[in-house]
Design a protein that fits this description.
By secondary structure, this protein is an alpha/beta fold. The chain has twelve helices and nine strands. The longest helix has 29 residues, at about 60-90. The radius of gyration is 25 Å and the shape is elongated.
Length: about 290
């Protein structure tokens, strides 16, 4: 008898839930049916996977089988979901993993242009930080990724857009007042007037005052809309790229410190695989065209 995916799935649920009865509720099966399948799996493996009959403690081999069961069922579920999505969209699908600021500043224009020629293609967007963009592309959970990087960092992907990083603060708040009082070139030290709302872009600013504020920050957000909402409510100031706030919301101010001037580069990434779908290829090309 060979391994069956359903065996691994049942074993995973039992191991994670700790009892046959709890697993039976999740799997909508009887405890006896689940117990029989576990016995078949252990017979095939040739050793016990649980320390006791209560199924609440795994043997060392059981721990290994659990890790492999998770990996196998996760891969299968992703593949099944991809097939389902493709079936729903006969014209194709484009899966994107994109940093929040690019979702606000770049994607609306690109999607509008893409839909003018391919209106039936399904587009799915994951709004995540740069590290998650890389992960989703690596595990084939996204066809195209857009991440933030320091200008000139050519270690991955292709640059599509560069813009200034600046301070976003509440209108008439302490940071804005200090900026207006200075009356000249500003520096990143003005952020010390308010709590820093940390986000991954702050790490692109090579200034000691920002790094110190990052260490002391007690509020972190990754979504651009959330950051602007927090700023508007007076919860602190943050760092965002110009393109994300060029249409400034009411109650929010934005300015670019010049000491030093810091910039952010958007880069598009994808796996080097053959036979990509025409829809993905078209979207990939359009990213550069529209950004230019």
């Amino acid at each position: 008898m060979s391994f069956k995916l359903e065996m691994l799935r049942v074993f995973r649920v039992v191991a994670e839930k700790g009892t046959l009865s709890a697993a039976a509720q999740v799997l909508d099966r009887t405890p006896s049916a689940i117990s029989m399948m576990l016995t078949q799996l252990e017979d095939h493996v040739g050793a016990a996977l649980f320390e006791t009959d209560r199924k609440n403690r795994l043997t060392p081999l059981g721990q290994l089988v659990l890790e492999e069961s998770r990996r196998a069922t996760d891969v299968f579920d992703r593949s099944a979901e991809a097939i389902r999505r493709h079936a729903l969209s006969t014209a194709g699908i484009v899966r994107l993993a994109v940093v929040p600021s690019a979702t606000v500043s770049l994607l609306p224009t690109v999607i509008e242009a893409f839909r003018s020629s391919r209106p039936d293609v399904r587009i799915e967007i994951s709004d995540v930080d740069s590290a998650a963009v890389r992960r989703r592309v690596q595990i084939d959970a996204a066809d195209i990724g857009i991440l933030s990087a320091r200008p000139g960092d050519s270690s991955e992907g292709t640059a599509i857009l560069t813009d200034d990083l600046g301070i976003v603060c509440a209108e008439d708040g302490p940071v804005h007042q200090a900026h207006m009082t200075a009356g000249g070139p500003s520096d990143w030290g003005l952020l010390a007037q308010e709590p820093l709302i940390a986000n991954p872009l702050c790490g692109l600013v090579e200034d000691p005052s920002v790094q110190s504020l990052l260490t002391a920050s007690t509020l972190t957000a990754r979504n651009t809309t959330a950051i602007l909402s927090f700023v508007r409510r007076g919860l602190g100031a943050s760092i965002l790229p110009f393109d994300a706030v060029k249409s400034q919301p009411v109650g929010v101010e934005f300015f670019v410190p010049t000491n030093p001037l810091c910039r952010r580069e958007l880069r598009k990434i994808r796996q080097d695989i053959p036979n990509r779908s025409p829809a993905v290829e078209a979207f990939w090309s359009l990213l550069t065209e529209q950004a230019a």
